[in-house]
Amino acid sequence: MEQKIRVLIAKPGLDGHDRGALVIAQALRDHGMEVIYTGLRQSPLQIVQAAIQEDVDVIGLSSLSGAHRTLFPKVVEELEKRNAGDIPVVGGGVIPSEDIPFLLEKGVRKIFTSGSSTVALAQYIQRLVHPKESTIIKPPEKIAHIGIAVHSIEHALGFYTDVLGLPLEGVEEVKSEGVKVAFIRIGETRIELLESIEDTSAIHQFLSKKGEGIHHIALEAGDLESRLKAYRDQGVPLINETPKSGANNSSIAFIHPKAANGVLFELCQHTEGTE
Amino acid sequence: MDKNKRPVEAWKQNTDQTIKRFPERKDTFTTLSDMEVDRLYYPDNDLLYEEKIGFPGEYPYTRGIQPTMYRGRFWTMRQYAGFGSATETNKRFRYLLNQGQTGLSVAFDLPTQIGYDSDDMMAEGEVGKVGVAIDTLEDMEKLLEEIPLDKVSTSMTINAPASVLLCMYLAVGEKQGVPLDKLTGTIQNDILKEYIARGTYIYPPKPSMRLITNIFEFCQQNVPKFNTISISGYHIREAGSNAVQEAAFTLANGIAYVDAAIASGLDIDSFAPRLAFFFNAHNNFFEEIAKFRAARRIWAKIMKEKYHAQNPKSWKMRFHTQTGGSTLTAHQPDNNIVRVTMQALAAVLGGTQSLHTNSRDEALSLPTEDSARIALRTQQIIAHESGVADTIDPLGGSYYVEELTDKMEEKIQEYLDQIDEIGGAVQAVEEGYMQREIQHNAYETQKKIERNEEIIVGLNKFTIEEEVNPDLLKVDEALEKGQIEALQSLRSKRNQQVIQNVLQKLRKAARNEHDNLIPYILEAVKAYATIGEICNVLRDEFGEYTGL
Question: With a cut of 0.85, is the ipTM above it?
């Protein structure tokens, strides 16, 4: 039987607000983890000793008093001093966003601020402790192409091939999407011109709503299926929850623009040898 | 009942007397269309109403504790403030007084609240963070510099070491030449809710209760205008309780303090008029109003019927209210201004004596000056523009509010009976009963929010993409160092022999449980003994509470 994930929830410093710590302890238990709560007023050293003694997989720190800048890094430091630097530390509480980069730089893995969901936290800890089962998803490798919606590829092409002098790689119709696409190579990436061939296509809608312009950015990214699952688990809104086939023998999926400040991102994975 | 002796006639007579001494704000109050607003609205001929709900300023005080309420004087606008050094906080205080604030409210940093000096190892990273750091009388002198203590009332959020901070305040008053019986203010001094919800306890319950009753006794004899305790539901609510639990556990704690004081030999009417309460104003508008009205009625009944208090002042529940900090969101922080407005209005319609309105940025950090001003303006707009303060208890008689008040009273009473069965609030705290009840409710609330069964606007509905990065108040990191240097320099200047003597006397008094500790603490404070030195003597003698 698989061992339960063991979590130490700790309140460093003098802060007495433990509503968040207690709620999270209960939520993690409901997600099948074993949770040890230190109680109030623990010094960084006491927290680290408890973590080692209890053989925990992860430490969660909670502070609402403003002492996080001093105390969170101290916990990481004390862990390293005792050769326990492999126990990851995450934090939460009232923590101004401008302090987060500082804490991450000091070795805290992640900060969950006011309003975070306990489900996201539990999933994060699961991934943190068992990266194989949930597979740590590598960041996308590069920009595969930038998609530009045009009324007519024939009319648009001249600027790219004649004025800029870029090589046209090919033109194909993707019937499933109701579009015709042209790929123009630029360095290791491409520009993709999209022309609608059906009134029901997304490109047709885009053109009639916004006119011509940048439509999406496509990222080259492997493990598409598990990647989509992982993103979904983190609450990222997806247009496609499973991959579908795209141009150029690729598998693709779109992320909802809500997730990225209104920018539509496509994830695409090219089958071996086609690139 | 004889028609001539209807309670309304008695109330009218009583009110006329009051108005002779304390005139109302205006001779006549009118709406914006020039219709006159009466002092009070009530059913013309309903004896049941007159007995059960009664009139403002009269038992059981459902409609308020004063006969004219805000027609006489608005509630005290009292914003909690304090951060960093005593000098900086003094500046903020003077700013707030200039802006029309009518009372001070001091926030102390955590080391002060738990009785540690700023250079104690336990204080690292916490000095000056959530409030002002006070190590010795010298800091208190800086904090109150040029603030006339005979004119301004000061509320101090201090519990386990309340006696030490109270003594420092008295010592500053003395230096300003203000007689002790002219000093007004409040110390929180409510240790039971620290065990339940807030966490700044030092000693175990029994000696803590002794310190509290020592304060009751000392103040009754020497500082009669000071509120010796503010029995607080605020933090119980912030820790995740619901409105019923907030009121019930607060009242249960109040009963425990009364019992302890009586057990120590005090007469109920000697201390009960100085008991004050502190509640939260949360989101559910009418339920909050009903909570305030029900709590007031229950307390009056307990004091009169259970403890046989004779002085009507002992029956009156006076309370401070603060809007609910945990209802504020880090997302779309300007929405918090609207939440605070609704909550503040509920507090006013519930008849609060003083009010703190939270600042919009409190879910992110301590409030900036701009945010603190908007919060104060919110109260001023309710007071001066809305007209809600022109008649007494305007919701009295609302079918909904009266029914809700009755139901609240019933549910609160059920909890009080339950706690009584356990053996009182001290026992219930030691067994963790209230803590469990609150935690259960907190977790259920969180789950409801995550399942979108409870809507928080801007958090789980009507969300937008936003960068959460407004201007935030930053406490200077160098402050801790400065505070420590000042403390150490003061320590080196003192006469060590004097310090040893006063601390030794305090230690001896602590061992004799019939001694009142306050005069000894006052002596130590005046000799510039530090808060840590004083609290450590008592830690040695009383032991430390380590949680459940």
Answer: no
